[in-house]
Amino acid sequence: MRLADKVALISGGAGGMGRATAEAFAREGAAVVVGDIEAADAAAVAKSITEAGGRAHHLLLDVTQESSWTAAVDEVVERFGRLDVLVNNAGISGTFDPDLSSTEFYDQLMLVNAKGVFLGIKHGGAAMARSGGGSIVNLSSISASIGQPGIHLGYGASKAAVRAMTRTAAVHLADDGIRVNAVAPGMLPPMRTSRGSADPVWRTKQIDGVPMKRAGEVQEVADVVLFLASDESSYVTGTEIMVDGGLTAV
Ligand SMILES: NC(=O)c1ccc[n+]([C@@H]2O[C@H](COP(=O)([O-])OP(=O)(O)OC[C@H]3O[C@@H](n4cnc5c(N)ncnc54)[C@H](O)[C@@H]3O)[C@@H](O)[C@H]2O)c1
């Protein structure tokens, strides 16, 4: 098993890619902690993993609150004794508010998508250092690399911040035996908070620009997160893997 005896915390683990990642990790032998602001949904994911024979736990995590991170990390370590893998997956869509000039929405995007990752690296990284090392995987996006219509500027800005923090954290944490990488999904199923980007017309236009001419599946992202979480990527740090069917290669 690729994650045997590892303990993993996944933020936003109740959502599409987070859930697929939690299930993949559990199948590969990890004890998985599903953290999400949607506590009932996180509980349902953990329950279904446990019923399938995996090891899972759920907790309420609001990635924007430092106290929520410290409580979550303490709970993981108290329950499982260590933290080996952190997936900073929680996020909100850049199309939730159709007002592309909203300053409040800019602040919200940076708070959840960028500061949420900073806090995860800070507290998850500290616990991992105490466990002797580990792997942090951050979810960025193609929106950090390319412009797309209808998406608030703050979304790409927040994801570019994730990419930059990934590199810097990889440098800072290497001495602690912690690798830090990012995965940048392209056209995946809409997020919980997607509005404009869930519109079929908008999606068809975007998918037309994908060399592979299709959207990705959440499992295809989870597989790359799994690779970066596992020891198979033991010499990979500070990088970002695009999972976009070639969209950003055009
Ligand atoms: N779906 C896409 O097309 C796409 C493309 C590129 C990048 N991404 C990124 O991938 C990640 C996962 O996206 P997804 O498609 O699974 O979306 P999703 O909406 O299905 O899942 C995101 C999860 O994050 C949770 N969340 C939101 N705010 C939170 C908070 N403050 N604290 C804790 N949890 C919170 C949500 O409840 C949800 O369960 C996100 O970071 C997203 O920005 C998604």
From TrEMBL:
Gene3D superfamilies recorded: NAD(P)-binding Rossmann-like Domain
One Pfam family from the record: adh_short_C2
Entries under InterPro entries matching the protein: NAD(P)-bd_dom_sf, Sc_DH/Rdtase_CS, SDR_fam
Keywords assigned by UniProt, alphabetized: Lipid metabolism, NAD, Oxidoreductase, Steroid metabolism
UniProt similarity note: Belongs to the short-chain dehydrogenases/reductases (SDR) family.
Protein name: SDR family oxidoreductase
